[in-house]
Amino acid sequence: MTTVPPFQRTLEAHGDAVWRYLRGMVGAWAADDCFQETFIAALRAYPRLQPESNLRAWLLTIAHRKAIDHLRRQRREALEPLAGELAAEPQQDGAIWSAVAKLPPRQRASVLLRYGCELRHREIAAAIGCSEEAARRSLHEGLKRLRETL
Amino acid sequence: MNRTPDPLKTALGSPAVEARVAARRFADRAAHRGADLFYAEEASPLGALLLVAGRRGLIVLRYDPTDVDATLIELAERRSPRIVESAAALDPWRRELFEYFEGTRRHFEAPLDWQDIAGFRRRVLRATAAIPYGELESYKAVATKAGSPGAARAAGNALGSNPLPIVIPCHRVRHAGGGLGGYTGGLERKRLLLAVESARVSADEKS
Fold it and tell me: Structurally, what CATH architecture does the domain formed by B7-102 represent?
């Protein structure tokens, strides 16, 4: 293939991972807005992408930026605390999701990208904008903290 | 990686229904968000149709869309990979097709995209697009209108590669001797389209 796949196929193949990641980062209520922003930005940049790009890692890098923007905005506007919002969600795996929600953002992002989206350490580092070593550390610390909570 | 199911992976990695809802919402609004091409499958009395349109008009109308991906990949390479599925974006053409099959529409007005149709093929298809509802023309007559009276066979080939059957009514072209010729969607469909059109025309003449 000399070009990236039709955008709809990319949306179908990775929309789920992007949504799960955002839900973990910003909560189910805000996840949809961030999801829409992520895919609008992705659609805009899409034709310039190299055909052999790792689409999932690329989309999650955009999603991460949108999530961080959202968290910053939220902090500025001092809306209700994120952990409370997430903990209130009724869901099957509620305990795990709310424990993840209580992690600091970088650890939370690392855990979600590794276990929710199956990115490699190198891809996690690229998505959240840190060194591979730092990504490994965040993941390790996040997991340790989760084990203590659960 | 360990092989036992990891509860963390199960919890954080399970598919979410909300993701599909969000994806659908995105695609439906994509017309205003920078998508270049839109596609949808539409049910019709002649079976499922695949429609693909861009900002200039309808690009593809296909019978029996079994391999939608092949069409989309080809368009992604030739036109733009910014392709999303959106029935809403195809409303003008879907509505006109519905009215045509219902019998309330005699010609199509929603724009067609002629960008990839060039030369003789374009002239043939233009001439065909002008054949009125319920009427028949010969390959030879269409070739003549396209500026090449001797090229009936080539006109037939051009019609065989009509990217927009029904709306560019190549079903209204047949052999001068009365033979039906060929059809992109199979002769059965050609016969059906012609039968329905002539029945409606004669019903109109009586009333």
Answer: 2-Layer Sandwich (3.30)
